[in-house]
Amino acid sequence: MDKIRMTTPLVEMDGDEMTRILWKMIKEELLLPFIDLKTEYYDLGLKHRDETGDQVTIDSALAAKKYGVAVKCATITPNAARVEEYDLKEMYKSPNGTIRAILDGTVFRAPIIVKGINPTVRTWKKPITIARHAYGDVYKAVDMKIPGPGKAELVFTAEDGSQIRETIHDFDGPGILQGMHNLNSSIESFARSCFNYALETGQDLWFATKDTISKKYDHSFKDIFQEIFDAEYKERFDEAGIEYFYTLIDDAVARVIRSEGGYIWACKNYDGDVMSDMVATAFGSLAMMTSVLVAPDGTTEYEAAHGTVQRHYYKHLKGEETSTNSVATIFAWTGALRKRGKLDQIPELMEFADKLEKATIDTIESGTMTKDLALITTLEYVHPVNSEDFIRAVRKRLEESR
Ligand code: NAP
Ligand code: MG
After folding, report:
1. In the CATH scheme, what is the code of domain 1-111+294-402?
2. 336-360 pLDDT per residue, tens
3. Does 105 have pLDDT greater than 80?
């Protein structure tokens, strides 16, 4: 059978440890036999990041901007232990942070639903996608311990020297203080990323903040979303038959728990941090979660939500068997291939992505799965397999479906 041809390359960002091993095997077993794969390859493995003084991470993000679609393997974010382990010249920043700063995007995370891995919340039938704003608020805050009595003020000094001043609190004893900010431009690009993603996936968009209490800060988020929606998206949402819905964060939480799923839940930075862990865990596993960064210019980068699975890698290095779940990494590739196919109008590439996802899900639903899932499945016949055999089982199904 002829291999599927591609016209434009994907930006391929290779990574570290166990996910790097899976990456290579996914390409060899599940992609290269079927596709005339065109990628522009960037090695974000820690060793090569060090050799290039991290320039390769910047280059890969610029390439993603140029070609529009990227797929990324999990990477090590160095800490002190890693600096020693890899004899690094520097404690480089998180590659995801560097890439996000260049692409200015929003991260969307959605669970991969399979029969036999049941959500903890009974009513959830469809995935809930969390869209997390990735700039500012408490993550860029300045905070202080107040030693004793005194007056705390919020002061803004404009370029012309004029000031806006507000008393925060007259302290009569020790306390704590925090100042945080956000930028209209960042909130605007967050809003556009969410509206575009809702249109692209045909799902409703929910957004919630605490605007009743935070009358200027959170209220600005609400207003900016509404203005952009009314001016740029309302008609397209009507045409697509989807809805934009704003509510208070506490109401949203209650509705999410009662819901069937099947929508995108846009969250401010902190809410997204906390709620995505809750949603991922309640759906079963971080290894069954897709993650995609969507930039306001449409650039899309697909990855897995989990890390490099260091513990399994060390077992692998010792020659021991591993049972690492490759589903999220496989879905990063299918997401990127489908997007490339859509942009370049190659229906066979989009169909291939669908088939590979189906083969992966069918493999699990037939009982063949890695240990992380075998431990939590409700299926009666379970055949736990190692990392390699899972990928081979998916290949077998994929070949049968062609
Ligand atoms: P991790 O790689 O997500 O793994 C933590 C644990 O979760 C594993 O030990 C394993 O549990 C389980 N797990 C995660 N993914 C799994 C999979 N695909 N299959 C089976 N089990 C899975 O987090 P980490 O070990 O704390 O971090 C390792 C490195 O990843 C760090 O250097 C960190 O900087 C990096 N990281 C990268 C990204 C990214 O690039 N997006 C994200 C997070 C972390 P058991 O050991 O119990 O089996
Ligand atoms: Mg978190």
Report:
1. 3.40.718.10
2. 999 999 999 999 999 999 999 999 9
3. no
Domain map of the chain by residue range?
A: 1-111+294-402, 118-139+182-283, 142-179
pLDDT digits (tens, 9 = 90+) for 157-202: 999 999 999 999 999 999 999 999 999 999 999 999 999 999 989 9
Q: What lines the ligand 1 site, CB under 6 Å?
A: 74-77, 96, 286-287, 303, 306-311, 324-325, 372
The model's pTM: 0.88
Q: Count CA atoms closer than 13 A to 91's CA, side-chain side.
A: 7
Choose one of 86, 302, 309 to mutate for the ligand 1 pocket test, by most ligand atoms within 8 angstroms of C-beta: 309
Residues with CB under 5 A from ligand 2 (ion): 273, 277
Atom of ligand 1 nearest to the CA of 291: 41
